[in-house]
Amino acid sequence: MDVEYGQYSVILLVEGFPPSHAGTITVYEDSQPGTLNDFLGAMTEDDARPEALRRFELMVEEAARHAEEAKKNAGEAETSARNAGISAGQAEKSAVNAETSAGDASESARQATESAASAKQSEDASSSSASAAAQKASESSQSAAEAELSRKTAESAAGNASRDATTAAEKARESAESAQSAEQSRIAAEDAVNRIPPW
Fold first, then answer.
1. Distance between CA atoms of 179 and 12, rounded to whole angstroms?
2. Region Disordered: what ranges (predicted)?
3. Strand 6-12 vs strand 20-27: parallel, antiparallel, or unpaired?
4. Please, what is the angle between helix 126-195 and helix 49-121, to 10°?
């Protein structure tokens, strides 16, 4: 709407900051028609207020940007920490599987030894016992291979857990730095408001 002639007190309201009196606008009967924003942004020879307002708005935008970066980095740090926990769980599970496979390999080797002894004691059953011994030896070899595979899987999962934990720590550090920058920008914005002289 167009502004009627008279005097208008301008109060600057920014979320997160106390109200600040920006000045008084005087509209005369012969003033050019316009809105309050038009008169507020109009620059005169004796008025440096619009430039001060622009600097203040830039400070507010910078504070908001730092706050958004801090929020984003905090979310990434949380995700990395969660991934680190998942990788650690996988590493523990793989380690248990490796231990189980190693136990199976030991048991198969023991059974292979017993089968070989039985084959040696009985000539009549030597062929059958030798076959059983060979089967147990094959099972022992397979169990040993499974144990080695599980061990490598556990090492890989442990490496992933370590990398995810490092990433989580880095993101947490970046989040803290962004939060600190946001706080510094907010303080600077408040100082800028306080330095604006009253009209």
1. 25
2. 66-199
3. antiparallel
4. 170
Q: What's the gap between Cα 64 and its chain centre? A: 19
| Residue 193: how many other CB atoms lie within 10 Å | 19
Q: How is residue 178 annotated by DSSP?
A: H
Structure tokens at 89: 């769980």
Distance separating alpha carbons of residues 40 and 49, to the nearest angstrom: 9
pLDDT surpasses 80 at 24: no
Decide if 76 contacts 173 (C-beta within 8 A): no
Instruction: Please give the pLDDT value at position 129.
Output: 67
Query: What's the rounded Cα separation, in Å, for the pair 105 and 98?
Result: 10
Kind and range of the H or E run holding 77: helix 49-121
Rounded distance between C-alpha atoms, residue 4 and residue 132, angstroms = 107
Rounded to whole angstroms, how far apart are CA atoms 161 and 64?
34
Read off the pTM: 0.42
What's the angle, vertex CA 195, arms to CA 6 and CA 177, rounded to 5? 125
